Amino acid sequence: MITHPLRVAVLMGGWSAEREVSLTSGAGIVSALQERGHTVIAIDMGATAAEGRDLPAKLLAANPDVVFNALHGVPGEDGTVQGLMDVMGLVYTHSGLATSVIAIDKVLTKQHLVPHGIPMPGGRIVASEELFVADPLPRPYVVKPVNEGSSVGVAIVTAQGNYGNPIGRDVKGPWQDFDELLAEPFIRGRELTVAVLGDRALCVTELKPKTGFYDYDAKYTDGLTEHVCPADVPADVAQAMMAIALRAHQLLGCKGTSRSDFRWDDEQGVDGLFLLEVNTQPGMTPLSLVPEQAKYLGMSYGELVEAIIAEALEHEGSKP
Question: Which of 134, 144, 263, 293 is least buried, going by the fewest C-beta atoms within 10 A?
């Protein structure tokens, strides 16, 4: 619990594919903190790596009590910025360096969680060039970048799809932007997500895109996806999903808030649950799922932001 005004630097922007989402998240956080009486310094990391090189100077000038990390994607979610702030001795929100390195990488996440019994799809890394020769898995399957968030670069390859068979070299898709991709079996069923705040899983939301699947545009364009919160799923499935999300959060060593994304094959009950990924820096935009779940449980946006900051301060205070 925060009992006095703080000096908070809100770090946003960056040069990942999620820059605009980060700026929107950051603007909301800045406004909420100012309304609650805090001194806020908004820091745009810049749109290119060259612009980002003066970040240490900006952070030093801000002299914050705590940094609210509202960056999404590389380099704000992969451990790079976390390592910098560790060296500078700054207190910051969300997960630390080691957790961020693992969770941004979908393969490392599987290697870390599956041995502990967390159900995740199988799959393997493939060179994009391989896709132009033959399918790496039986269709339907999914290909996605190893270390991007917000469903950036995800493609579902079906028997009736328009990518070709094999995939056409000149057909637009993630194979044109990434040398390597993660190929996973496609799991039929429903798209669901669970937010974790501190030591508590909040609830389950079902995502129903109006067209296609829950891709980047569906996530961040108003009206393209219906959010059902709480999801209309059996109680045992909801409880299992929340338990998996909390366990994954703990196993990875997440701090603050995380969001776990699932596919659920509703013909298989609890056995049809599969964790797809854990997001250590979930969005805080008006369309984002963590604020929505917190609101359902009676927590305002401002209270959520302060709760994330409070945990960062408490974690720092507990260090030896």
Answer: 134
